[in-house]
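Morning F.,

Quick status update on the modeling queue. The single chain you submitted on Monday has been processed. Sequence for confirmation:
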Amino acid sequence: MKFGAVGGSGVLVNFLFFNLLLHELGGRAMPATVLASVIAMGTNYLGFRYFTYRDRASRTRQQIALFFVFSAIGIAMESGLFYIGYHGLGLHGPVESNEVKGVSIVLASAFRFLVYRTWVFRH
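Structure tokens below.
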């Protein structure tokens, strides 16, 4: 439940910045999706560390490094999936680009959930 709450807030941050950068400010799609994901990653770290997994091992350099390494892999997965939908399938409109963004977030989040609870925020 806690992972879902923090993850859900991260998704909202991700979508908010993605739409602001791409649709409101007229930015390019790939920088918008990557930057939005990076901003969400920062807010997610705080939520996971101090809310979801606060009962687990205290913050260490290794934990921080693992979080950011696995998050970077997740961002690469998310961005690659987004690229396939946006550029490969031509889903450029506001609704279509958000659908592609949503699918890419869901798939990358499954990976993140497994690695965060298994390797990053261990008991």
